């Protein structure tokens, strides 16, 4: 069998395909010295393309066997693709498994061959969806370097509606509209936005959303304003607990309190003030006329006679005589409560002389009134 003489190879298509030309002398069926991927080789004889499997056999990547021998003077051209050049330009597939698959629906699959979120790997669907499934790790890592700002920009029909990013190196969710919505599976929404220019955080529906849970409670609530219970003016704007120094004042004479035991407690809920406790009277010097006590908060305007108090004492520190009890009168806009003796005939008298000054005795006090603070 005559062989062929002369061959030359050239690279076409940016190095992806190789062209080798054989000039036949005599007759031959064997073309050797090739490097191709099976199924990715084209053979032309005198300009006519031969059919793989019919006109030639190419099964071992290095030789091609012609079914009918080429004759002296024939020109045979082999355009082949080397096994290490299967990937397209720019993709170097050095893996030992399927790296990228493009299925018949034009979905791009990375490290997997089956579509769906349940399969580990990445998927870019022809419809534009991006799926990523990972075992035991995060599915996405997004890193903005140097400056603060948006890391994810969220758009609707090309218009930015919000973003996720950083501000002063802190995590930030930003809404470009008037509100940020949080919604659960029952379509219950919490809205953070502006109403008539005033910022609010509120449920989308009325009177059906709780804050906290019986066994999952918040700890402390810090407010600079108050709690509005309904659409009326029922607003709780203050709660306070504390102590203050009791001061007994008389029109004449004096009542002396033990400075170690002259503290009274108060609780202020809104405008209602309640005081309670006991003081120690260490002495009295001819007290007479009115008897008054200094209050921790000023009395509300227009509320004369709005307070109530009870006073009683151990032993004989206080002598009510024929009186049946005590109460106080609080004067509008004042800081004092005046004690009075109540008699069975409904008359009352303010008289500090009920303090006898007979030794160190305890006086117990409790009372309520309204304040304008």
Verbal overview:
- This protein is mostly beta strands and 373 residues long.
- It folds into 4 domains: 4-85; 100-133, no CATH class; 178-213, no CATH class; 242-370, Adenovirus Type 5 Fiber Protein (Receptor Binding Domain) (Sandwich), CATH 2.60.90.
- It has no helices and 29 strands.
- Strands 21, 22, 23, 24, 25, 26, 27, 28 and 29 form a 9-stranded antiparallel beta sheet that branches. It has a 5-stranded antiparallel beta sheet with strand order 1-2-8-4-5, with no helix packed on it. Strands 9-10-11-12 form a 4-stranded antiparallel beta sheet, with no helix packed on it.
- The model is unreliable at 1-15 and 84-90 (pLDDT under 50).
Q: Please write the CATH class name of the largest domain.
A: Mainly Beta
Instruction: Write the H/E string, N to C.
Output: EEEEEEEEEEEEEEEEEEEEEEEEEEEEE
CATH architecture of the largest domain: Sandwich
Shape descriptor reads rod-shaped
| Distance linking N and C termini | 120 Å
Mean pLDDT across the residues is 83
How many structural domains in the coordinates? 4
* Share of helix, binned: under 10%
Strand residues, percent: over 45%
Number of H- or I-type helical stretches: 0
CATH topology of the largest domain, which one? Adenovirus Type 5 Fiber Protein (Receptor Binding Domain)
Say how many strands there are: 29
Task: Report on the biggest sheet.
Answer: 9 strands, antiparallel
Class from helix and strand fractions: mainly beta
Taking all Cα atoms into account, the compactness measure Rg is: 49 Å
User: What are the low-pLDDT stretches, counting only 5+ consecutive residues below 50?
Assistant: 1-15, 84-90
């Amino acid at each position: 069998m005559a062989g062929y003489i002369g061959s030359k190879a050239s690279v076409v298509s940016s190095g992806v395909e190789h062209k080798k030309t054989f000039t036949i002398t005599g007759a031959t069926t064997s073309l050797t010295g090739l490097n191709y991927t099976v199924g990715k080789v084209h053979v032309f004889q005198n300009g006519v393309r031969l059919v793989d499997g019919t006109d030639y056999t190419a099964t071992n990547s290095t030789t091609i066997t012609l079914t009918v021998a080429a004759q002296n003077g024939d020109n045979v051209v082999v355009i082949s693709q080397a096994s290490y050049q299967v990937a397209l330009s720019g993709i170097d597939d050095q893996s030992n498994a399927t790296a990228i698959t493009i299925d018949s629906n034009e979905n791009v699959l990375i490290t997997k061959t089956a579509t769906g979120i349940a399969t580990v790997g990445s998927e870019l669907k022809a419809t534009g969806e991006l799926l990523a499934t990972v075992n035991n790790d995060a599915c996405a890592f997004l890193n903005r370097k140097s400056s603060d700002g948006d890391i994810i920009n969220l758009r609707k029909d090309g218009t930015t509606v919000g973003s996720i990013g950083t501000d002063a190196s802190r995590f930030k969710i930003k809404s470009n509209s008037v509100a940020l919505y949080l919604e659960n599976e029952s379509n219950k929404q919490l809205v953070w936005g502006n109403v008539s220019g005033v910022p609010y955080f509120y449920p989308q529906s009325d009177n059906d959303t709780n804050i906290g849970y019986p066994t999952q409670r918040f700890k402390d609530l810090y407010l600079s304003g108050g709690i509005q219970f309904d659409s009326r003016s029922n607003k709780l704007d203050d709660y306070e607990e504390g102590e203050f120094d009791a001061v007994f004042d008389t029109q004449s004479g004096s009542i002396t309190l033990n400075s170690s035991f002259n503290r009274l407690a108060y609780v202020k809920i809104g405008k209602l003030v309640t005081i309670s406790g006991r003081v120690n009277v260490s002495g009295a010097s001819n007290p007479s006329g009115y008897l008054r006590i200094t209050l921790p908060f000023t009395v509300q305007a227009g509320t004369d006679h709005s307070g109530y108090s009870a006073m009683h004492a151990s032993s004989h520190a206080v002598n009510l005589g024929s009186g049946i009890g005590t109460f106080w009168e609080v004067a509008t806009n004042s800081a004092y409560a005046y004690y009075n003796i109540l008699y069975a005939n409904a008359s009352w008298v303010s008289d500090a002389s009920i303090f006898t000054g007979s030794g160190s005795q305890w006086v117990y006090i409790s009372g309520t009134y309204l304040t304008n603070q």
